Amino acid sequence: MTRGPAPAPDGAARTASARVLVRGGTDEKTGEALSATVMAERVAWCAALVQGMACGLAALHWDADDLQMLASGQDEAGRSLPAQAWMALRRLGWAAAPPDGVKVNDRIARMAQEQAGRLLRSALWRDALTMAVTSTWPLADPSKRTPEEWDAVRAAVPGGEHLPSAVIRARTRQAAHHLQDHGRLPSGVTELEAPPRVPAMLILAAVDRQQATIERHETDPRRALLRLQLPNRPDPRGYGDWAWVAVPLFLPPTVPAAAKLHLPTLRVSGSRIMADISFTQQVPQAHRAGHTIALGIDWGLNTLMSAGTCRLSLDGTITALGAGAQYRAGGVLARQHRLRRQGEALHAKLDRYQQLASECDDHPLTAKAAVLRDEARHVASRRSHLNDALAWSAARWAADQAIAARATVVYVEDLRSMEARGMGKALNTRLSQTVRGQITEHLRHIAAEQGIAVVTVPPHGTSKNCPRCLAPLRHCKSPEQPTVAGWKWAWCPGCGWQGDRDMGAWQRIAARGLAHQDKTAVSRDADTMAVRAIDDTLEARAVVAPYASGRDRSKTGATPRRSTARRAPRRRAAPSPPRSPRGGQHPEGHVTPARRLPRAVTRDQRVNATCTQLARCPHRARGAALGAGFHRNAHATPPNGNETPAFRGHRITDDR
Predict the structure, then answer these.
(1) Is residue 494 part of a domain?
(2) Which of 192, 210, 226 is the last residue of a domain?
């Protein structure tokens, strides 16, 4: 196992991963060139051996006593268990045995033990949560706990003080179903869940140089060479059936030239092999406090994100820098909902086919059910890829906004406890299928390269209260679009502030984070930052100061047309020159029409409409054009880094 360099005094060591496609290799003994198909076959043979050994080991120790022994962190002699999973299992005497007649070396057994140990350790917290829920089971309806019962279950869960309530409710529903089926509560996670499934992959970080090595190219930092032992047959009978294979890897631009490479994890993805290469690099240190410019991000539905920056002055005054920006992904979300409806229809039809085919063994619908199962899997894969692309695009946009504004921290509201209930079937589904968690994780990954901290803050009252005086807001229709239904516009009856509710929300989030930055807590296990609770004294200071202007520029209606004393003439007074066939200055009335812009540039950008597509082509929204950003239907405000934040206007959303 390779180790990264020590962090610099003014920086931090950051470990990330990059996915690379394995395109082939070379057998070092025979010199034979192996194609990508042959490499995929050999890696799949080795991964199948590791998967079978790890699956048997995890199923063998999937009981309450073994999990309790692993959770104690000590062996029978009272010594502390090592941090590496395979070493901990060997200290406990849990060995992984290969199939009968198959010969593997000790490093293959290490990878199986590492994979099984990680799965068993990940179940320890779920087991503690299950026992906490069952030990504090309420006498009345478990779905409607009293405040005292909520305090009791949070006290029983390790770290349950700040645990999202949605996690506890989900585990409560699982325990209630077990009680209904078996007549008793589960004693642990082993009764509530089946043994964990083991994926087909090779964790090369658990082996040493006798099984795999990785080195950079001497002259080209974008290339690396991976050497590992792979079997020549699916059931190797001896060590002679294993051979060293050299695999050239082409690193993506996201891997710095000075980064330290670690042994990758090889994953089997159909007929391809993907290598997740880990690397360690030096990045600026992100601080939990001491920030003066912060980016606030508010989550939305049609407008996925609304963001803007605020400045904290020396006298404690908080002002807004500009009017903010928006990331709109209505078309992408409409595509997601179309794929969701298609997947639901396929699963409903598949369930019906399986119900009819269960009556006899050779039913003609069995083959059709297999086709539907493959199609449903394909639709689920498309949804997953679209969500991942949307999350990366939104995270990069937010990071660009912070970099352009020279912000040192990004404050995001924590909506992990939000549950979509009581808002209708369609809206509940849309709220529950957002990618906020993925965006936050990707934003932490991108912001760490620039030394920008990402901190979550409580969401209570961010869209409800005024950013200037903290009084409750009143919501109404936007004066710019009085015929469009919705409650996007907010105005304060106390101070008179008014504007888009999302624009006011990001000001509240940024101001709350700047006021509570000394209360930021750093998680030890995940290395994440969060403001856990709101202090009333600090919250009273989290107000955005109004822009000092000599005249009232409140938005109460349509902007009036400006009048000038002397209008410009429609045609120029001087006669136009004669038309020249060779070009030059265009005569009057013969101006060459400019290149037509894509329809995506001028299409309707109303945030309350997810899709305006006709039924004739449901997969392409109106106005879609190739080359218009990440997706045809995603639009975002570009970052503006030309002006220095110190000289930007401090006007907030009432001058939109």
Answers:
(1) yes
(2) 192
Domain that holds residue 65: 51-192
Q: What is this structure's pTM?
A: 0.77
**Exposure of 92 by Cβ count < 10 A (0-12 exposed, 13-18 middle, 19+ buried)?**
middle
Tokens of 290: 């001491």
Which of 165, 192, 219 delimits the end of a domain? 192
Residue 602 included in any domain: no
Residues 176 and 323 in one domain: no
In tens, the pLDDT along 485-542 reads 667 788 888 888 888 888 899 999 999 999 999 999 988 777 789 998 888 899 888 8
Angle between helices 330-357 and 365-404 (to 10 degrees): 160
> How many domains are contained in the chain?
2
- Please spell the DSSP secondary structure of 531-585, one letter per residue: E-S--HHHHTT--BPPP--SS-----SSPPPP--SSPPPSS-SSPPPPP-TT-SS
**Tokens standing for residue 404:** 């352009």
Each residue's pLDDT tens digit, 365-399:
888 888 999 999 999 999 999 989 999 999 999 99
Q: How far is CA 195 from CA 95, 128, 184, 206, 505, in A?
A: 17, 17, 20, 23, 44
In a domain, 280, yes or no: no
- What stretches of 136-249 show up as alpha helix (H) in DSSP? 147-156, 165-182, 189-192
DSSP secondary-structure letter at 449? T
Cα gap 307→653, rounded to integer Å: 12
Asked if 263 contacts 2 with a C-beta cutoff of 8 angstroms, the reply is: yes
